[in-house]
Design a protein that fits this description.
This protein has 208 residues and is mostly helical. It folds into 2 domains: 97 residues, no CATH class; 49 residues.
């Protein structure tokens, strides 16, 4: 009996650790390539909505908060937003190779499709039915972007500035571009810089 008690005191059973849930991510470079190829082929007229659905809701490679932050960085960088985002995601998981593979997936096959469509459009550009169809696609694209923006608003709940300040900045941006017709660079560096400064100060106060 004493031996049993001694064994229990000398070598207590270590508590079992619950393994953390593994976050979804690309399985390989080929998975990254084909994922961005399929994403690009779906992005006719509303690539923002497609990117958000595929990366956040379907594959869950990013949270909504991460998507909003990375998309903001992709917007202020030179070049197409979704191309910049693909480079960032590829680099995050596989380094430089991942960035190049994601870029190839985003551009290779869609480039062939666009070239083919350009040849076809050149033959029917003067057709009024074709012109009307393209204008109709513009309305659908605007609706997709609006719906995606409303869906991503839930990510602002965790923003350091809070929802009211974020809505105020967003409203000022909309008014500056749509109503006042300010240059994009002025809105980007003016309101964007103000937002960065306010967020930096807010985080600094929270840390102290």
């Amino acid at each position: 009996m004493r031996d049993d008690n001694r064994r229990m005191t000398e070598s207590p059973e270590a508590p079992t650790e619950v393994p953390a849930e593994r976050r979804p991510q690309p399985n390989s470079l080929s998975d990254l390539f084909f994922s961005f190829t399929l994403l690009a082929l779906q992005g006719f007229g509303g690539v923002l909505a497609v990117v958000q659905h595929e990366l956040v809701e379907k594959k869950r490679w990013m949270t909504r908060e991460e998507f909003v932050e990375d998309w903001a960085v992709a917007q202020i960088m030179p070049g197409p937003n979704v191309v910049n985002l693909s480079l960032m995601i590829g680099d995050r998981y596989f380094g430089l190779r991942g960035a190049m593979v994601a870029l190839a997936g985003m551009l290779a096959v869609p480039l062939l499709v666009v070239l083919g469509l350009a040849l076809i459009y050149a033959q029917f550009a003067d057709n009024p039915q074709v012109a009307g169809a393209l204008r109709g696609m513009g309305a659908v694209a605007a609706g997709l972007i609006t719906a995606t923006g409303l869906k991503l608003m839930s990510a602002l709940r965790r923003h350091p500035l809070g929802v009211p300040a974020c809505i105020a900045l967003g409203t000022a941006t909309f008014a500056g571009i749509v109503i006042l017709r300010w240059p994009l660079a002025f809105v980007l560096f003016g309101l964007g810089g103000l937002s960065c400064v306010l967020t930096y100060r807010k985080i600094g106060k929270a840390g102290t």
